[in-house]
Design brief:
homodimer, alpha/beta, Molybdenum Cofactor Biosythetic Enzyme, Chain A, Alpha-Beta Plaits, Maf protein, 3 domains, 14 helices, 40% helix
């Protein structure tokens, strides 16, 4: 089953919108046994849209498209499919009724141009879109399938999950690729690669290493005719890798550092509080991104001013002696917020996001401090040269690493 | 000048990484007078990479590639270019010296596989990469140009800005497309479209409307042989639109709501403080994303627990009477943090991110409160059905809107 993905829209072609839909779909095709060969973007241009559809129809069995299903003249996905198939769209009575109902329930009349959203072709059936007015199209003829979904990501994602993916799963059972990603921390990519060597020779699998913001990932992949068979190949490799890396593996697949840390906190019944300046709330936002954060996240302070730090219990003497951007102040912030919020662990972050230096400290310098229940305080410093956003992101990741070390008693004294 | 962009890497094809590079480049091509016709993604597969390069070489004058410049066997961009051109790569002495120097300065030996990063072709010159070990390649022959840049976004972006874009600007002066985007707030897309109609007929320009998270955008575009000429066409249209929309236009082009609000605060010498639960620090992180936030952002509290709210001065009586997720509590949070942090404006956000309801309140419900220097308090409520991340994002945008209304005296009483 050869597949390709086409994202439709001038705004995507010109980069005014970043296309997240294609990645969302691409990630899930291998486990369905569908080989993705091409991904492309085409603007709202009738000739180029037609050309793109024609080439796709020739070379692919399954064509997944997103976008171009809106009500305006710019939205030409339906027209392009009709043209390729040489069929004529007609207004479907049931779709029309649903569409008019949608507008009526909101109390305003339906612009007549919207009637396009009730079109169907003889070879197409509508795919429900509970989050919007544009139904998808499942078009099928001569062994080719075109699945057209809306461009708005929440609409597309729900339609894919509820309708399209289950239907594809039911109908195709080619050779399935299953992958397992193990996430390590604290070891360089070259060393991970060397340590993992013994596993590379195991039968039926492939192993790759990937350097990521949250450490080096090891991905084991196996192809087999069923998912169960693929797992039979992966499991011994995973066990071997877990043996080799031990505690350096902190999670797998969709696990995030913040999610794993949250689990540990909740299991242990311990709590956390944060005091941030340079990251300005990003660390708190990262923890509270996880459902159930209220079970361990005691609170966060964004202290962009020295007075805010003092008010939360930071010792002015430490700031005066070492400067507000220093390891000592980071530790003092961690200690203070731990007490202030009555938490088991405290984290303090202070630094210079840039672009300009501050009090003689170079932009990109970030100090992170941690305070633990047994009275240990520790600090780390990073220097990031890749701009303001990268400084903040890297600082958050480093805070998560520091916290993991603390939870496993691996802090430098 | 017909251009295409090719993003290279199996991780991008399979959606394990979202490709932001292509959008970054695509956004900047129109103003250089370069027409972008295709964007595609190809995996680390020699045959398909070759095929993609060959097709691009046939149909495009300028090919911009990102990725595949690393040191491993998987990185085949250089090999693919050499194959298309029928040239043989040789190690460039100067590049080799720089590469070995990079490793020496870090105190570890260079793996011999890295020597690929010192390769050059007769038709290629190296493009400096101050942020990494992989230089880019500028390859030129028979009227075609291939510009190969690294896949790591900060490396790619700096190389593009410092080296590639200026060189393209110097060499090409085709018909230039200049655009101006005006950002409106508080008016629906249909109404904006109708109000803007008189401008649509103005000569030499095109106008489009786009519904965005931060309001409806109006984009004026004009093509001319020089940038100045294009601006001559745009300016009268912009003036007319500003006349029509007045204060409803809050910014243009790259302006962000948080940036504009920051400017207003600094100009007026006023300050802001935030207390968030459901957004968990995202609002503070949004304000502090702007350089110079310390000039007005007095501080933020992430109060994920009721005790944290009480400690910051929220009246327990209000929470008991109306519930922690209520307009009254949101207003009380705004009032309390304004006093607590000694700021002119306070914002409070409380809600249910989901996936589960909380105290009988449906997930996706968010209340936002604001307190102003003249004692006004106001609140807004939104209900978002598109999942946890969308709830948090929409809540932040709504807080920015509420704040803008407050700053311009447009709050509901």
């Amino acid at each position: 089953m050869k597949a390709e993905i086409i994202a439709i829209g001038t705004e995507i072609l010109l980069g005014e919108i970043v296309d997240t839909n294609s990645a969302h779909l691409a990630r899930q095709l291998p486990e369905l046994g569908i080989d993705l060969y091409y991904k492309s973007v085409v603007g709202d241009n009738r000739a180029r849209l037609h050309e793109t559809f024609r080439r796709a129809w020739e070379r692919s069995d399954l064509i997944l498209t997103t976008g171009g299903l809106g009500p305006t003249d710019d939205d030409m996905t339906r027209e392009a499919i009709a043209e390729i198939l040489g069929e004529k769209p007609v207004v479907d009575a049931e779709l029309e009724q649903r569409l008019r109902g949608f507008f009526a329930s909101r109390g305003y009349p339906m612009p007549e141009s919207n009637i396009k959203q009730a079109w169907l072709l003889p070879s197409a059936r509508a795919i429900p879109n509970p989050r919007g007015t544009a139904p998808g199209w499942w078009t099928e003829r001569d062994g080719h399938i075109i699945v057209s979904m809306p461009g708005v990501p929440p609409e597309m994602e729900l339609m894919w999950a509820n309708e399209v993916r289950p239907e594809l799963e039911r109908r195709f059972s080619g050779e399935v690729l299953v992958t397992r990603t193990l996430k390590t921390l604290g070891i360089g990519e070259g060393t991970v690669d060397e340590m993992a060597r013994p596993v590379y020779a195991m039968p039926g699998i492939g192993v790759g290493t990937y350097a990521r913001a949250d450490g080096v990932h090891l991905r084991i992949g196996a192809k087999a005719s069923t998912r169960e068979e693929a797992w039979m190949l992966i499991r011994p490799a995973e066990e071997e890798l877990r043996q080799i890396f031990g505690n350096a593996i902190w999670g797998s697949d969709e696990d995030t550092l913040e999610g794993m840390l949250g689990d540990v906190f909740r299991e242990r019944g311990e709590t956390l509080a944060t005091m941030e300046s340079v990251t300005g709330g990003l660390l708190a936002a990262t923890f509270t991104d996880v459902p159930g954060a209220s079970g361990f996240f005691q609170g966060g302070l964004v202290t962009y001013q020295t007075e805010g730090k003092i008010a939360a219990g930071v010792d002015l003497g430490v700031i005066r002696e070492f400067g507000v951007v220093s390891q000592e102040t980071a530790k003092e912030m961690a200690r203070a917020v731990r007490v202030h919020a009555d938490a088991d662990y405290g984290i303090g972050i202070t630094g210079v996001a840039g672009p300009d230096p501050q009090e003689g400290v170079a932009p990109g310098t970030v100090h992170l401090g941690i305070a633990t229940p047994d009275g240990t305080e520790a600090a780390m410093t990073i220097v990031v040269n890749q701009g303001r956003a990268a400084v903040r992101r890297r600082a958050v990741t480093t805070a998560l690493l520091l916290l993991r070390r603390a939870l496993y008693g691996q802090l430098p004294q």
